[in-house]
Amino acid sequence: MKNVATAAVKASRLYRELNAYTVKHFDSLHEHMGMMLAVHYAFTDRSSALLTVQTLISELTALHSRADKLETSSSKIFGGDKSRVRKLEDLKDAIRATEDAKSCAIKEYERIKV
User: Which PANTHER family would you find in this protein's record (predicted)?
Assistant: First the structure.
């Protein structure tokens, strides 16, 4: 009976020591997981900002293409068409607004990237 009790006490001490090591390692694992969550959010923000920049660049290319086509077609007509001139002015306004948005998006991306 004495040997069983001694073995039970030794097993209890070993389990207590094992639990202490487990808690220690779980603490470092918990810190690591918290840091990885922050890294994940940072990369998500960076990816979103890059997507915004790429979308604005694509939209800007499409607007320039439309403006070029409209200028080409209106130059073929002598005297020009008032509605085409108005559309061209609207496109130029949209291009300016998109250029401003693109520069802001690039600044935001550079801020996040650093």
Answer: OS05G0346100 PROTEIN (PTHR46757:SF2), SORTING NEXIN-RELATED (PTHR46757)
The alpha carbon of 15 is separated from its chain's Cα centroid by a whole number of angstroms, namely 46
- Structure-token pair, residue 83: 């509605």
Rounded to an integer, what distance in angstroms lies between the CA atom of residue 8 and that of residue 16? 12
What does the alpha-carbon distance between residue 81 and residue 71 come to, in Å, rounded to a whole number? 11
**Taking the CB of residue 82, how many other CB atoms lie within 10 A of it?**
8
99 DSSP 8-state letter = H
Asked if the model's pLDDT at residue 74 lies above 80, the reply is no
Please report, rounded to a whole number, the percentage of residues in the chain having pLDDT higher than 70.
96
Quote the CA–CA distance of 48 and 42 in Å, as a whole number: 10
- The per-residue pLDDT for 72 is 83
- Using CA atoms, how far apart are residues 20 and 26, in angstroms rounded to an integer? 10
Q: What is the mean pLDDT of residues 16-29?
A: 92
